[in-house]
Design brief:
single chain; mainly alpha; 79% helix; globular
């Protein structure tokens, strides 16, 4: 079976699992509810025809939601004893990792698509800056890619779904809080340390700036955690 076909098959399998999972609908509903709340508060408190408040807070929401969406991928299969069967199937390990990651990312993009009604509302009542809005959504896509990969890595480390979800949040929190490094490291190190933070790079997208360094950050973030997931599963294969 070709790599592309293997990834496609695994993607369909995982999407079917999401479609019949009540937990996925719970997180989808919670995400959209919070999105509506952030949109209302942002518009009512600032009086701007802008999604600045909404999009900034959606990234925080993803920090907690995405590890919970990805926690079942490997943890559940390991608990049910089907992970070994999957790993001995005529499918490469990299295809398994990429297929599951793409399924998580697809669900996250569907959740983001559910917020497209808010730009429509703003366009009806005001004159939003579409360029800033587009780059802000692009930044959230980058966050979705990276956080999904990190959640998948956490799921590969344990057979307990809840532990995998919490571990995913713990892994991501340092990348979120590192912008406050000035309180922990010498002042001369602060600019370098902050470059590892998600907010440092997401902020450029939210200002309407599309910088190749910020794009590269999210690409590298995603690749590193997918690679760590691959290595984690590969190490189990030889135990």
């Amino acid at each position: 079976m070709s790599a592309a076909r293997s990834v496609w098959t695994l993607w369909k399998k995982e999407m079917r699992s999401y479609a019949v999972s009540p937990l996925a609908y719970v997180f989808l509903g919670a995400f959209l509810f919070l999105s509506g709340l952030f949109f209302y508060l942002g518009v009512s408190l600032t009086g701007e025809a802008s999604l600045r408040v909404l999009l900034a807070n959606l990234a925080v929401t993803q920090l907690f939601v995405l590890p919970m969406l990805t926690m079942r991928h490997f943890a559940e299969e390991r608990r049910q004893g089907t992970l070994e069967l999957l790993m001995t199937a005529p499918v490469s390990l990299s295809s398994i990792v990429v297929g599951k990651w793409l399924a998580s990312l697809s669900l996250c993009l569907l959740m983001l698509a559910g917020t497209f009604v808010f730009p429509v509302i703003l366009a009806y009542y005001g004159d939003p800056d579409w360029g800033v809005m587009a780059t802000s959504y692009l930044g959230l896509v980058g966050v979705s890619c990276g956080f999904s990969a990190a959640g998948l890595f956490a799921s590969s480390l344990t057979d307990d779904q809840v532990a995998a979800g919490l571990l995913g949040i713990v892994i991501l929190l340092p990348f979120w809080l590192v912008h406050q490094a000035d309180a922990l490291v010498p002042e001369a190190w602060v600019p370098s340390v902050q470059q590892f933070g998600v907010l440092q790079h997401l902020g450029s997208f939210q200002r309407g700036v599309l910088d190749s360094a910020d794009v590269l950050y999210f690409v590298a973030f995603t690749f590193i955690f997918l690679f760590l997931t691959f290595r984690s599963l590969e190490s189990r294969r030889w135990r």
